Amino acid sequence: MATGKEIVVSGIRSTGFLHLGNYFGAIRNYIRMQEDYNCYFFVADWHSLTTHPDPKDLRGNVFRLLAENIASGLDPEKVALYAQSDVPEIAELYLLLNMLAYKGELEKVPTFKDKVRLQPQNVNAGLLTYPVLMSADILVHRAIKVPVGKDQEQHLEMARNFAQRFNTRYGEELFPEPIAFNFGDNLVRIPSLDGTGKMSKSENEMATLYLNDTDELIRKKVMKAKTDSGPAEPGAPMPETISNLFLLMQSVSAPDAVDNFRLAYENQSIRYGDMKKQLAEDMVAFIAPIREKAQALQQDVPYLRRILKDGAEKARASAAQTLQAARALIGINYYQ
Ligand code: ADP
Ligand code: TRP
């Protein structure tokens, strides 16, 4: 893919069903970038191994993620869509970068500290070096922009550090410093429906809307979303549970509908039941077509395999060039 376009990389772990947070934090940006950038999008299957998934589930998760990406609007003709484990150059760069990554800085990463708290019985080296593997994913294509949600900002900062450290040590600007990217000013964080955190693949399924949810389940989850007990005092800041509902509504509903409810909130005549009914229907209209298309695509395994193979070929062509340059700079190029 030798074009003059800027290079973009992003990945999603194959750990479960895609949800609205993945869509608005990552995939929506992928779709908008695919025309104007040189894009490498992948299923982060190696990253999912930190929690030892059942081998029987892994392959289904990878194929479903591919199907859901395509159903959301990603065009495999325009981008390289591949599985991380099909690109061995990523593992090689991970090894090289590990020599420049320090235990102390890795132990300080907030996502690592969270995992230690949540799964103290499984603090493996893969978990500790997760940001190094992620940096290898990005730097292997010498990417500039990385479309991700807000939760990944810290990891991007580490990728910049490793890039800089490598460049300084080996005396050449091999790696540009990548930035977290979102169209619009701010990175996105889609809140969970119970107001306790972000929507996520593995935690609290009833508070997360998945692209695979049935219409009934979507309605049920939205109607159960937390709202406050009554109208707030005039001029008081909007409670988080309510601003979360507005944020979700802004994502999927017509601007008129959002404006009407905002006005009703301001003059304290809002009925949260009505707002949630509207949100539920708009959510169904948004999710159902993606769900149906993804389910159909998942039936066509030969097609999905072809996509993976083509994607890996494009990704390896780019990765091989980077590794050749990296090896030469380090001095492990014995046959040249
Ligand atoms: P999860 O956190 O649900 O397991 P991943 O870690 O695989 O999902 O994240 C894939 C992408 O989706 C990343 O770019 C991440 O920033 C984004 N993402 C995940 N959850 C959210 C959310 N609730 N809001 C916005 N973006 C999100
Ligand atoms: N760490 C990311 C997450 O948990 C997934 C990921 C792995 C990624 N490698 C990446 C995202 C490279 C962007 C670029 O969401």
TrEMBL record:
Motif 'KMSKS' region: positions: 198-202
GO MF annotation list: ATP binding; tryptophan-tRNA ligase activity
Keywords, sorted A to Z: Aminoacyl-tRNA synthetase, ATP-binding, Cytoplasm, Ligase, Nucleotide-binding, Protein biosynthesis
Any one biological process term the GO annotation gives: tryptophanyl-tRNA aminoacylation
Pfam family, one: tRNA-synt_1b
SUPFAM superfamilies, per the entry: Nucleotidylyl transferase (SSF52374)
EC nos: 6.1.1.2
Catalyzed reactions per annotation: tRNA(Trp) + L-tryptophan + ATP = L-tryptophyl-tRNA(Trp) + AMP + diphosphate + H(+)
Residues binding ATP: 13-15, 21-22, 149-151, 190, 198-202
Cell compartment(s), UniProt: Cytoplasm
InterPro entries linked to this entry: aa-tRNA-synth_Ic, Rossmann-like_a/b/a_fold, Trp-tRNA-ligase, Trp-tRNA-ligase_bac-type, Trp-tRNA_synthetase
Record: residues binding L-tryptophan: 137
Location, primary (coarse class): cytoplasm
Signal sequence, renumbered to the chain: none
Coiled-coil positions: none
Main enzyme class: ligase
GO cellular component term of the entry, any: cytosol
HAMAP family associated with the record: Trp_tRNA_synth_B (MF_00140_B)
Protein's job: Catalyzes the attachment of tryptophan to tRNA(Trp).
PANTHER family: TRYPTOPHAN--TRNA LIGASE, MITOCHONDRIAL
Family recorded in the similarity comment: Belongs to the class-I aminoacyl-tRNA synthetase family.
Subunit structure: Homodimer.
Listed name of the protein: Tryptophan--tRNA ligase
